[in-house]
């Protein structure tokens, strides 16, 4: 009974946290890890091409197109080739990023909703805990909906409670963090106003 309640609580915490920070933030951070692990060589090549392009542009600016036309044309051809390589690699990486983000967004939603449904389905007959007798006597059947024993709290009701409490905690933490940040910024503004008054 306690293990089931803790599993459902953990699933609710994870799901609510990811929903609170946003799927896009989660997907972006996942892509950064993917890029470090899988696309490291492509990213290094892209940086190398960019460095080469900057060097060639510097050389091109330093070379006169009228006085040293052959040298200028050779540098220009190298610059065009390097730019084409850079553009192709950047386009390929952009397509990979878009594809990864779409797949990861869908996969994360499927996994999170799947975890919710699985937890609710798996523990649907198991009571999370029993309510004290007589507290909610006329409406105890609501707490045990859909299939838990009468007088107990069902997994569905427990999951909804956990989600709501976790959401309230996350919002409260965000508000506390925001107010602390604002309080830290207020003395700086006050110091600036005092400095303006002095001058």
TrEMBL record:
Fetch the Pfam families from UniProt.
CHD5
**Segments crossing the lipid bilayer:** 6-26, 106-123, 135-161
Q: Which GO terms describe its biological process?
A: tail-anchored membrane protein insertion into ER membrane
Query: What membrane topology is annotated for this entry?
Result: Multi-pass membrane protein
**Domain of life here?**
Eukaryota
State a GO cellular component annotated for this protein: endoplasmic reticulum membrane
Q: Which InterPro entries match?
A: Get1 (IPR028945), Helix_hairpin_bin_sf (IPR029012)
Name this polypeptide is given: Guided entry of tail-anchored proteins 1
Native source organism of the sequence:
Basidiobolus meristosporus CBS 931.73
